[in-house]
Amino acid sequence: MIGALQCVVLDCPEPVSLARFYQALVGGTVNRRDRRWALNDEWATLHLPSGQVLAFQGVDDYRPPRWPDGTHPQQFHLDVGVADLDAGHQQVLAYGAKLLDDGGGTRGWRIYADPAGHPFCLVLERPPQST
């Protein structure tokens, strides 16, 4: 092993605003003090309850991915498990997400873009099958 993953970094035009979007989506603390990073207008963090960290880096002339257009690839995406897909849908739209693909209404997932254009999925959590 060479090192340990510190965080996942998303490029965006407004770091604190996007950190707050993801805070509403998955919880956590925006811009908690951390010796690893200096916080400023061009860098924000979201410390998740699980211990993981998402970071948001301001980029001049930011160009969002365009799912599913391969000429502007998504680069990565997050899957967020939800117990109720319809309720999650309404909540992420209220926070500023845009629906990209409704999964045909029967697939158990939907694809959205966050306010900076990064794709993410809401995935229906299914209870374990009893045997």
UniProtKB/TrEMBL annotation:
Q: Which SUPFAM superfamilies match?
A: Glyoxalase/Bleomycin resistance protein/Dihydroxybiphenyl dioxygenase (SSF54593)
Q: Kindly give the PROSITE patterns that the UniProt entry links to this protein.
A: VOC (PS51819)
Against Pfam families, the record matches this protein to: Glyoxalase_6
Show the coiled coil region(s).
none
Record-annotated VOC domain positions: 4-125
- First and last residue of the signal peptide: none
Q: Which PANTHER family match?
A: CONSERVED PROTEIN, HYPOTHETICAL FUSION PROTEIN
Provide the protein name: Glyoxalase
- What species was this sequence derived from? Planotetraspora kaengkrachanensis
